[in-house]
Amino acid sequence: MENNELRTPLTQRSGSSFLKACFNATNAFLGIGLLTVPYALSSGGWLSLAFFFLVSLMTFYTGILLKTCMDADPSVTSYLDIAERAFGRSGRVTVLIIMNSELYLVATGLIILESENLYKLFPNFMIKLGTFVIFGRESFVLITALVILPSMLLTDLSILSYVSATGVFSCLIILCSIFCVGAFGGVGFHGRGTTLLNVSGLSTAVSLYIVCFAGHPVIPSIYTSMRNKYQFSKVLLFSFVLTAITYLLTASESYLMYGDSVESQIILNLPTKEISAKVAIYTTLLIPVTRYALMLTPVANAIEGGLPEDYSNSKPLRLLTRVGLLASTTIIAYVFPYFENLMAIVGSIFVVLASFILPCLCYVKISYSSYRSWDYKVMGIVGIVVFGTIAGVLGTYSAVAELVKDY
Q1: I need a surface site. Which of 93, 176, 372, 377 has the fewest CB within 10 A?
Q2: Subcellular location, in the record's words (predicted)?
Q3: Residue 195, φ and ψ in degrees, nearest 5
Q4: Exposed/middle/buried for 38, CB within 10 Å: 0-12, 13-18, 19+?
Q5: How far is CA 2 from CA 89, 214, 258, 357, in A?
C-alpha cells in the first residue's frame, strides 16, 4: 500500500531527523486522494466534510495505536510484524494479502489516471494497425503500459524512489495550479457548489475521504527510522494537519469552481489552454510513470516469495511475473476505466481494513490484559471499528453498484 497510492516514503535506519520524518509521513498520506477529493465533496455536499474531519481524527488515532503496538515489543518493526504479534502467522498472511491487493488496485488506477489525462490532451488520437483501430482512451491505456514497461524490468528502483518522494511538492503544485485557473483563468469561484448534503452520494464521498488517509502500512517504518522516537506523535500530527489542509483547500476551491460538474479527477475539468492548467496536468502525468513500478514491486516480491526456492531466484521468472502484473492491470484498466469507482472500492475495503479495523484489533489483542473494562479508550476503539465496518459495507455496495451501472 499505496503503500498506496502514491505513498512511498524514503526512510533510513540510521535515524531520520524530525523534519525528514515529517516529510516522509506527509508523503505517505498526501497523494492520489488529492485528485478525487473534489469529486467526493461534490458527491456528498458541504456537510459531508464533517465525515472528512471524522475520518482524519480516527486515522490519526489508529496511527498512534500502531506506534503503541510497536512499543510493546522492540522486535516489531513493520505492519506485518504487528499483525503477527497479535494474531500469529495467519494475521501476517492476512495483512500481506490486504496490502498487496490495495497496491495492485492502486497501480491499476494509475494506468487509468494516465490514460484519461492523455486523452484530455489529445482527444482525437487513435492507433491504426491495418484495418484494426483503437480509439481514444483505450489507445492511451496501451501506450501507458508500454511507457511503464521499462521501469518494471529494472532491478534497482532507487532512482524512481527519489523521484516519487517529490509527491508532496507535486500535490502542492497541483493545488496552486488549480487556484490559478480559478483566479486568473476565467473560471472564477462563483459559488457553483451549493449543495449542503447529498445523502445518496454520501457513501461514495466517505469512501473517497478514507482514501485520503491511507498511509498506515508505512507508519511502522517511519517510526523505526526516527532518531528521536519520542517525537513521533508530533510528526504524525504535523503530517495529518498539513495533509488535511491541502485536501480541504483542493476540494473547496474545485467545488466552488465547477460545482456538481466536478469530474472523477479534478484535472479533467481544467482548460487545457491555460498555462497553469497545463502545469497541473503535466505534473499529474508524471505520477504514474514514477510510481507504478514502486507500487507493484512488493506485490511481485510476495508472489516470488511464495514460489519454490528453485524458481524464486530465477531472473526470467521474475521478469515474467512483473510483465504479467503489468499486463493484468492494463487489461483491467482497459475494460473497467472507472477511476472514481476503483478508488472508492480501495477505500471501502482495503483502507478501511488497514487504517481502521486492523490497528484497533491488533492493539486490543496485544494490550487486552490492560483493558478488560469498558473505559473511554475501549469505547473509542469499538466506535472506530463500527464506523469503519459500516463505511466499508455501504461504500463497497455503492461503488460496485455504480460500477455495474456504468459498465
Answers
A1: 372
A2: Endomembrane system
A3: -70, 125
A4: buried
A5: 23, 7, 28, 17
Q: Give 260's Cβ-side CA count (13 Å radius).
A: 8
- Look up residue 61 and give its three cell numbers: 488515532
β-sheet bridge partners, residue 133:
128
As a whole number of angstroms, the distance between CA 400 and CA 204 comes to: 11
Alpha carbons 155 and 313: distance in angstroms, whole number: 12
Q: Count the alpha carbons within 13 Å of 341 in the hemisphere toward its beta carbon.
A: 16
pTM: 0.89
Architecture of domain 18-406: Up-down Bundle (1.20)
Burial class of residue 186 in the structure, from the number of CB atoms within 10 Å of its CB (0-12 exposed, 13-18 middle, 19+ buried): exposed
Spans of the chain, pLDDT less than 70: 1-14, 155-161, 163-164, 191, 311-312, 368-374, 407
Picking from 250, 283, 159, 219, the residue whose alpha carbon sits closest to that of residue 24 is: 219
> Using CA atoms, how far apart are residues 186 and 393, in angstroms rounded to an integer?
41
**CA 50 – CA 54 distance, rounded (Å):** 6
Q: DSSP assignment, residue 77?
A: -
End-to-end CA, the chain: 27
Helix axis angle, 79-121 relative to 358-366, nearest 10°? 170
Rounded-to-integer distance, Cα 23 and Cα 20, Å: 5
Burial of 245 (0-12, 13-18, 19+ CB in 10 A): exposed
Whole-number Å distance between alpha carbons of 255 and 400? 25
Residue 93 near residue 80, CB atoms below 8 Å: no
Name the residue among 300, 291, 298 with its Cα closest to residue 319.
300
Q: Which three cell numbers stand for residue 163?
A: 523521484
Cβ partners under 8 Å of residue 37, min gap 6: 208, 209, 212, 247, 250, 251
Is the separation of the CB atoms in 339 and 116 below 8 Å?
yes
* Residues near 295 by beta carbon (within 8 Å), at least 6 away in sequence: 2, 4, 5, 8, 103, 104, 106, 107, 110
pLDDT digits (tens, 9 = 90+) for 329-370: 999 999 988 898 999 999 999 999 999 999 999 999 988 655
User: 40: number of CA atoms within 13 Å, CB side?
Assistant: 30
Nearest alpha-carbon partner for 63 in 216, 264, 284: 216
